Amino acid sequence: MKILLIGSGGWGFNHLRALASNSEVEQIYVSDLSEDMLSRAKKHVPKAKTSKNYRDFLGEVDGVIIATPAKTHVEIAMDVISHKKPVLVEKPLALKTEEAIKVHEMAKAHNVPLLVGHLLLYHPALAKIKELLDSGELGTPYYAYFQRLNLGKIRRVENVMWSLAPHDISIVLYLLKKDKPKRVRGFGKAFIQKDKDIEDVAFLDIEFESGFMAHIHVSWLDPHKVRLMKLVGSEKMVVFDDMAQDEKIKVYNKGVNWDLYTSLFPYSPNVAVRYGDIFSPRIENAEPLKQEQKDFIECIKTGKEPISSGELAVEITKILENAEKSMKNGGVSIELQ
Q1: Residue 82 belongs to a domain with what CATH number?
Q2: Are strands 221-233 and 114-117 parallel, antiparallel or unpaired?
Q3: Which of 158, 235, 291, 317 could form a disulfide with 139 if both were Cys (CB 3.0 to 4.6 A apart)?
Q4: Interval 87-103: pLDDT, tens
Q5: Exposed, middle or buried by CB within 10 Å (0-12, 13-18, 19+), for 20?
Q6: 37-51 per-position pLDDT tens digit
Q7: Helix, strand, coil in percent for the chain, rounding step 5
Q8: Would you list the DSSP string of 234-295?
Q9: What is the phi/psi pair of residue 290, to 5°?
Q10: Cα–Cα distance for residue pair 204/12, rounded to 1 Å
Q11: Residue 150 φ then ψ, to 5°
């Protein structure tokens, strides 16, 4: 398998590291506008072929990974797809829904696999949570809330919502695949880059057709690094703490039982809180980025639909675009079309 990586700085270098350790990848090509980044890539992978112009390699490769700044994703992705090359685009796919739709439809028209880098969909912990939810062990899902906080990395183009919230939006859409989001609200503030109105902290609410609610809190201006999800169901509750060294998932057998009372006790409380066991299921020890690249290579080989598909990316972009519109208008609720 011959893979071209476009953009080797920041997260792109992580892709390079993962590609270098993948036994299925026989040749790596790297394109970057920075000579320093190309030199670093060459030092890390001496056999890599490098160029400032990614088009130098399009005729030689089986697939392309795009890890450039978000504002460049659409133009590069459409160019790659026009050459009928399978593509993995880092999130967000686009900064506008109409552009995300164009990329997705172009990939379908050219019968080209399109995978978008919503990394946490490849986390083994998420697979376990999905298993618990689909099996009915959690009961009816009620709501979830997410915290993705840290001090840095501060972006200079997209705000914190576009930078961090795609992870959590992708998780909730993946878990509630048959449910559809119908309404969003966003609220946030710019403290560091007030002149550019780039928000450093944001809160995002998503309401689904079933009544399920998701609340997402993201910030790159926080004293603690937090990667936390809590999912509450009618039977059990799940906590996913990605910062935990061990026991990243904990399942709480807690909930509320409605007790039946006779007419002799008309004023008795009819709700009983249930406290049961807490257990931590075993999860596979697998790096999400390597699992994502594995899915990409499988898509190249078979043409199958990726776990993190273009269709999912369009829905995420729609939510983000409308949440930002809400945020810029004081947090008004916006219906999704």
Answers
A1: 3.40.50.720
A2: unpaired
A3: 235
A4: 999 999 999 999 999 99
A5: middle
A6: 999 999 999 999 999
A7: 35, 30, 35
A8: SS-EEEEETT-SS--EEEEEEEEEE----TT-TTS--EEEEEEEEE--------HHHHHHHH
A9: -70, -35
A10: 28
A11: -175, 175
Distance from C-alpha of 153 to C-alpha of 156, rounded to nearest angstrom: 10
pTM of the model: 0.91
Pair type for strands 87-90 and 181-189: unpaired
Which of the listed residues 120, 153, 187 is the one where a domain comes to its end? 120
Q: Measured between alpha carbons, how far is 38 from 70 in angstroms, rounded to an integer? A: 20
Q: Which of 56, 87, 120 is the last residue of a domain?
A: 120
Q: Answer yes or no: is 293 within a domain.
A: no
Q: Both 137 and 275 in a single domain?
A: yes
How many residues in total does the chain contain?
A: 337
CB atoms within 10 A of CB 113: 24
Whether residues 157 and 143 share a domain: the answer is yes
Q: Which of 47, 108, 23 is nearest to 311 (CA)?
A: 108
Q: Which domain holds residue 266?
A: 126-288+318-335
Q: Tell me how far apart the alpha carbons of residues 241 and 125 are, in angstroms, rounded to a whole number.
A: 10
- 228 by Cβ neighbours in 10 Å (0-12 / 13-18 / 19+) ranks as middle
Same domain, 86 and 142: no
